[in-house]
Automatic annotation (TrEMBL):
Stretches assigned to coiled coil: none
Stated name of the protein: Pyrimidine biosynthesis enzyme thi3
One GO-annotated biological process of the protein: thiamine biosynthetic process
Domain SsuA/THI5-like, chain residue ranges per copy: 41-237
Length: 328
């Protein structure tokens, strides 16, 4: 799950063109969610809601559209090619600051899924000073400055992330960005020993897979979006804490490269790390306090300027529509 090259520049160029409400979608069109990768467990609650009939029960016609590394989700959202898109909170904050008509309305995960994978001899991330670390473009514009400040890393340690384990496997000094529910599975399957440090556990505040809506969709399809989020929260409850087989079957049908074994691993991992929140938490909900922590970290890292418009990048108005809670 990575940012398309040049997304920050694209956002800047789009600000003037989409300073209004964005491009509206045709009346009667399906409500379309654009994900940030090929179908996988990290999207499972949405596929569960689709496959188990939760969306249909809510009177919704929903289209789940897969993203990927070459898909610029923000550009497609602003162009009216989808109603909602899975992005990261940094992008919502920057959208607010730039006056782009895109607003975070919910978050899939209460914490980020990214972390640092190291070889077994590394028992604390601070031991990585001077070691090569493979980091994606998205990571460089989000958590990398925070890691540098916290652990004393330098930019010459950052090497391009290549979406495979080979550079890590064959360099005993290297570490790499990884997702707790993805690359760790690949390492286990290849019998590669490792340690993993979830950034959220290290103190990095973020959300994971935030749902952004276009302002045009908020103006014309607000009730549908509220119903979609309510059904999606129930879908995630089923997928992680119930029988998620409907969602798994839908994911496997959509993504020929996915396996049942990986889905089972990822679902168990998301449950283990309490990705949907702690016991009793409202699934998909957000808070002002968490957004303020994210903004503060971006500001201290020098990734944004102090612009009060950042708050325009999210709304808590849909929290009341969310019906599912993490089981106690």
């Amino acid at each position: 799950m990575t940012m398309a090259p040049g997304r920050r520049e694209v956002l800047g160029g789009l600000a003037a063109a989409f300073v209004g409400g964005g491009t509206a979608r045709a009346a009667g069109a399906p409500l379309t969610l654009l994900t940030n990768w090929c179908a996988q467990a990290e999207h499972g609650g949405f596929y569960q809601a689709q496959a188990s009939g939760l969306y249909a029960k809510a009177g919704l016609n929903v289209n789940l559209r897969m993203g990927g590394p070459q898909v610029n989700a923000m550009q497609l959202l602003l162009a009216g090619q989808c109603d909602l898109a899975l992005l990261q909170p940094e992008e919502a904050i920057r959208a607010g600051m730039r006056g782009l008509p895109a607003v975070a309305v919910a978050t899939t995960f209460q914490k980020g899924l990214a972390g640092i994978m190291t070889h077994p001899d590394i028992h604390d991330p601070g031991q990585l000073r001077g070691h090569p670390i493979f980091i994606s473009a998205e990571g460089r514009s989000s958590f990398w400055p925070w890691l540098k400040a916290r652990y004393g890393f330098t930019d010459d340690q950052a090497h391009p992330y290549t979406f495979n384990l080979q550079p890590f496997m064959f360099n005993p000094q290297a570490a790499m960005q990884a997702f707790v529910s993805s690359e760790t599975y690949a390492a286990r399957k290849q019998n590669v020993p490792f340690n993993f440090y979830l950034l959220s556990d290290l103190g990095y505040p973020t959300y994971g897979n935030v749902l952004l809506a276009s302002r045009s969709a908020l103006q014309t399809r607000k009730d549908e979006i509220a119903a979609f989020l309510a059904a999606s929260s129930e879908g995630w409850l089923q997928y992680i804490y119930g029988n998620g087989q409907d969602g798994d079957r839908a994911i496997l049908a959509a993504n020929a490269h996915m396996t049942s074994d990986q889905l089972a691993f990822s679902r168990a991992t998301l449950k283990r790390i309490a990705a949907l929140g702690t016991n009793g938490a409202s699934i998909l909900s957000m808070t002002d306090a968490h957004w303020m922590d994210i903004h503060k970290t971006l500001l201290q890292s020098g990734l944004i300027t102090d612009d009060p418009r950042w708050r325009d990048g999210y709304t808590l108005s849909f929290n009341g529509a969310l019906t599912a809670r993490v089981p106690s």
